[in-house]
């Protein structure tokens, strides 16, 4: 576990310019994906006359609310390709962005609690290896060796029958990731405009030509939507629909504790995922609230359920206290895979549907979405995730690897 | 936790219910006539309203009956509870404490309109024509 200190804060990392009357491209949403997209547009495609519009404060949505887990052990080729590309970028980004956001490759364990889990997990380990993703199958005693606080005895409702393990997976400081991207964007000439809410789009026929905001109208040739839970609202303004449902997803942290949890443990079956943050909080999350919601909060029984699961798996957590709970709005799709690519509106591009697992995808989402915006064509990694798949039926069903534990 | 007024059983905790998503989505009248785009609309596209939303719930651990509800997806306030097969209430009245049981079949199995394939969804919070009887 990394225990070194975070770097001192500079006085500021980015400017707060007034919006200009026109840009070559406008990114809607100043979270991780929006900032990463802007960064790669500037760095890889030389597009620096661009703006990121954020209706609230920078990275205050899901980027501030996730449980920071980074992994790439997805079942299907398309997912493994894009998430593994993201993981490779995570490995080099601290140096590239000149900002140590404490990416800690402490490994991620996905527990198996039933014979079905065991079979699915071993299959996924095989699929991962074929795709160049590091993965191994652990027997219960190996699970215990890696994470001694886990209860692997037979006297719980769903005993641990083994786990998949990805050693290169881990966690990072989410706020610092956003600030690292924001600082580089600012250095490259990108305008980061906070408190700027998009209220509509200007179109010439079916082509987007501008963005209406609460701070005036901005003309632009291209628009990229990176608005996560609010993607449907923006799409409706632009005149098209997205196959997305927005749900509350809750998480919580405990008080600070001595380092007790050396890795990341996820359990789809008893429904919890847990890591220990650098400072010492136990960070936990589980599944979404069942109902549609834009309220950035959910129902308490969901929290109760995930804590019950955590205490069953980690008996020492029984005496820990919850410090904070919160919720974000996640943009779920029916195949638990993102939607990245062109939209029915010309020159408008969508990056959404990352649902409960967008944080880990941030660098690859940004890199490939920037390519799509700059060239007007899909990137080879995001092409399978185009909106058309809901018509062609070429769904990328990742519920097994993604449904609960992103 | 939501406190939901089941039309048959009265106010109960949310944990007794299961969510059924958007209400008033009729099964296509002529399924064989649908093209891929229209099937995609029916299978995968649902309104994702920010604001008052008509949705279905089932009282799984109680009377096991389905019913419709108007709920604000931002404040989570429940504005109306009404039986399956009846139109969405025009104005959002407060939810009744209890109501009469409805055994009317779900409108999704009896609707007469195909899924909307129009590009805009600004009217998606209201039931499509023919969705209710």
Overview of the structural elements:
- The complex is a heterodimer of chains A (406) and B (133).
- Chain A has helices at 32-45, 77-96, 115-130, 140-146, 174-187, 231-238, 300-313, 358-375, 389-392, 399-402, and strands spanning 22-28, 50-53, 69-70, 108-112, 136-138, 162-166, 170-171, 191-193, 198-204, 207-213, 216-225, 245-256, 264-267, 272-276, 281-288, 322-332, 339-342, 348-352.
- With 406 residues, chain A is of the alpha/beta class.
- In chain A, strands 1, 2, 8, 9, 10, 11, 17 and 18 form an 8-stranded mixed β-sheet that branches.
- The longest helix of chain A has 20 residues, at 77-96.
- By secondary structure, chain B is mainly β.
- Chain B has 1 helix and 6 strands.
- Chain B has one helix at residues 36-44, and strands spanning 3-6, 10-13, 18-22, 52-58, 66-72, 78-82.
- The longest helix of chain B has 9 residues, at 36-44.
- The radius of gyration of chain B is 15 Å and the shape is globular.
- The model of chain B is unreliable at 95-133 (pLDDT under 50).
- Chains A and B meet through helix 6 and helix 9 of A and strand 3 and helix 1 of B.
Provide keyphrases for this structure.
heterodimer; A: 406 residues; alpha/beta; eight-stranded mixed β-sheet; 10 helices; 18 strands; 29% helix; globular; B: 133 residues; mainly beta; four-stranded antiparallel β-sheet; two-stranded antiparallel sheet; 24% strand; disordered C terminus
Task: Produce the secondary structure layout.
The complex is a heterodimer of chains A (406) and B (133).
Chain A lengths: L21 E7 L3 H14 L4 E4 L15 E2 L6 H20 L11 E5 L2 H16 L5 E3 L1 H7 L15 E5 L3 E2 L2 H14 L3 E3 L4 E7 L2 E7 L2 E10 L5 H8 L6 E12 L7 E4 L4 E5 L4 E8 L11 H14 L8 E11 L6 E4 L5 E5 L5 H18 L13 H4 L6 H4 L4
Parallel strand pairs in A: 1-2, 1-11, 2-8, 4-13, 11-18
Antiparallel strand pairs in A: 3-7, 4-6, 5-6, 9-10, 10-11, 12-15, 12-16, 13-14, 14-15, 17-18
Helix pairs in contact in A: 1-5, 1-8, 2-8
Chain B lengths: L2 E4 L3 E4 L4 E5 L13 H9 L7 E7 L7 E7 L5 E5 L51
Antiparallel strand pairs in B: 1-2, 3-4, 4-5, 5-6
């Amino acid at each position: 576990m990394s225990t070194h200190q975070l770097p001192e804060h500079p006085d500021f990392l980015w400017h707060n310019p007034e919006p200009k009357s026109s840009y070559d491209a406008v990114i809607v949403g100043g979270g991780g994906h929006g900032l990463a997209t802007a960064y790669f547009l500037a760095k890889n495609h030389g597009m620096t006359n661009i703006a990121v519009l954020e209706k609230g404060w920078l990275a205050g949505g899901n980027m501030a609310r996730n449980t920071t887990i980074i992994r790439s052990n997805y079942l299907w080729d398309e997912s493994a390709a894009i998430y593994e590309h993201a993981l490779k970028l995570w490995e080099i980004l601290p140096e590239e962005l000149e900002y140590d956001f404490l990416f800690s490759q402490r490994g991620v364990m996905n527990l198996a609690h039933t014979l079905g889990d065991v079979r699915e997990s071993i299959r996924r380990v095989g699929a991962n290896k074929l795709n160049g993703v590091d993965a191994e199958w652990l027997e219960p005693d190996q699970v215990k060796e890696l994470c001694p606080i886990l209860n692997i005895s037979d006297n719980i409702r769903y005993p641990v029958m083994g786990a998949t393990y990805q050693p290169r997976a881990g966690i990072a400081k989410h706020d610092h990731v956003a600030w690292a991207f924001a600082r580089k964007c600012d250095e490259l000439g990108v305008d980061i405009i906070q408190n700027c809410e998009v209220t509509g789009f200007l179109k010439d026929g079916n082509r987007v030509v501008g963005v209406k905001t609460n701070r005036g109208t901005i003309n632009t040739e291209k628009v990229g939507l990176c608005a996560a839970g609010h993607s449907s609202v923006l799409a409706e303004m632009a005149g098209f629909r997205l196959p997305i449902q927005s749900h509350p997803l809750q998480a919580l942290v405990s008080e600070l504790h001595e380092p007790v949890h050396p890795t990341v443990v996820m359990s789809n079956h008893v429904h919890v995922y847990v890591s220990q943050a650098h400072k010492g909080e136990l960070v936990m999350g589980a599944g979404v609230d069942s109902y549609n919601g834009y309220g950035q909060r959910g129902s308490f029984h969901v929290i109760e359920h995930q804590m019950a699961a955590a205490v069953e798996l980690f008996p020492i957590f029984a005496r820990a206290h919850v410090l904070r709970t919160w919720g974000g709005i996640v943009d779920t799709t029916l195949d638990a895979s993102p939607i990245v690519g062109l939209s029915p509106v010309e020159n408008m591009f969508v990056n959404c549907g990352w649902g409960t697992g967008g944080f880990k995808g941030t660098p690859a989402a940004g890199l490939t979405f920037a390519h799509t915006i700059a060239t007007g064509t899909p990137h080879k990694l995001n092409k399978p995730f185009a909106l058309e798949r809901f018509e062609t039926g070429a769904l990328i069903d990742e519920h097994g690897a993604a449904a609960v534990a992103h | 936790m939501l406190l939901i007024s089941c039309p048959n059983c009265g106010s109960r905790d949310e944990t007794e219910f299961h969510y059924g998503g958007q209400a008033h989505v009729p099964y296509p009248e002529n399924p064989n006539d649908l093209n891929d785009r229209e099937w995609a609309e029916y299978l995968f596209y649902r309104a994702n309203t920010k604001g008052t939303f008509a949705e279905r719930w089932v009282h799984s651990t109680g009377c096991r009956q389905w019913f419709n509800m108007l709920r604000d997806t931002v404040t989570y306030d429940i504005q109306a509870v009404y039986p399956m097969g009846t139109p969405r209430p025009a104005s959002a009245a407060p939810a009744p404490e209890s109501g009469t049981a409805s055994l009317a079949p779900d409108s999704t199995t009896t609707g007469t309109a195909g899924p909307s394939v129009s590009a805009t969804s600004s009217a998606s919070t209201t039931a499509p024509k023919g969705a209710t009887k």
